[in-house]
């Protein structure tokens, strides 16, 4: 997404037109990914708004991170995923409910298929063989770059369950690829 990277550099300089264009080009894809993880449309809208407010404020840090690899889409998604975790935490505190009572998170099979198709080869086949709950943990921790705690909040699972599923997923992947 070289255009988005160029737009981010302009946003870092305070270019409002570049920000508008970046939002127009990237917000629909970010919203779709958020909706795949949270069924609450109001919360998704709030997270999307918070994500792009953060992008406006922190666009300059994208250039600092760029040498380590990753593009604008990954940087934007990392911000969105972390904002979703923060929003789910706030919502849980507001409701004073246990972690298990968080909004229903949906993980459609189509995304799993796309993930396996994108990776391809033996790795894609190994991913396709994983149980959906193991794939969800791998997706959050590896692809979205979330910590165990953030994955726990995102998926509505205890941290110990996230750790054990991550370990089971790694073991299953290692066995499938050996």
Automatic annotation (TrEMBL):
Instruction: Please state every residue range assigned to the domain named RNA polymerase sigma factor 70 region 4 type.
Output: 122-173
Under Gene Ontology molecular function, one entry of this record is: sigma factor activity
SUPFAM superfamilies for the chain = Sigma2 domain of RNA polymerase sigma factors (SSF88946), Sigma3 and sigma4 domains of RNA polymerase sigma factors (SSF88659)
Q: Which UniProt keywords apply?
A: Sigma factor, Transcription, Transcription regulation
Residues crossing the lipid bilayer are none
Q: InterPro entries per the record? A: RNA_pol_sigma-70-like, RNA_pol_sigma-70_dom, RNA_pol_sigma70_r2, RNA_pol_sigma70_r4_t2, RNA_pol_sigma_r2, RNA_pol_sigma_r3/r4-like, WH-like_DNA-bd_sf
Query: Which GO annotations describe the biological process of this protein?
Result: DNA-templated transcription initiation
Asked whether the keyword Transcription is assigned, the reply is: yes
Q: Boundaries of each RNA polymerase sigma-70 region domain copy?
A: 22-94
Asked if the Swiss-Prot or TrEMBL record annotates the protein with the keyword Glycoprotein, the reply is no
Similarity-based family: Belongs to the sigma-70 factor family. ECF subfamily.
Q: What is this protein called?
A: RNA polymerase sigma24 factor
């Amino acid at each position: 997404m070289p255009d988005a990277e160029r737009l981010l550099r302009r946003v870092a300089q305070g270019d409002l037109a570049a920000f508008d264009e970046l939002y127009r080009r990237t917000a629909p894809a970010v919203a779709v990914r958020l909706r795949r993880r949270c069924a609450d449309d109001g919360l998704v809208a709030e997270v999307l708004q918070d994500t792009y407010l953060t992008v406006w404020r922190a666009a300059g840090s994208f250039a600092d991170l760029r040498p380590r690899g990753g593009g604008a889409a990954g940087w934007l998604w990392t911000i969105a995923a972390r904002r979703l975790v923060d929003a789910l935490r706030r919502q849980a505190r507001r409701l004073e409910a246990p972690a298990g009572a968080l909004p229903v998170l949906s993980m459609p099979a189509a995304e799993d298929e796309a993930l396996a198709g994108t990776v391809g080869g033996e790795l894609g086949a190994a991913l396709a063989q994983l149980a959906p709950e193991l794939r969800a943990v791998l997706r959050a921790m590896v692809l979205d770059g979330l910590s165990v705690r953030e994955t726990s909040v995102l998926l509505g699972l205890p941290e110990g369950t996230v750790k054990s599923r991550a370990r089971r997923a790694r073991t299953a992947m290692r066995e499938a690829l050996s």
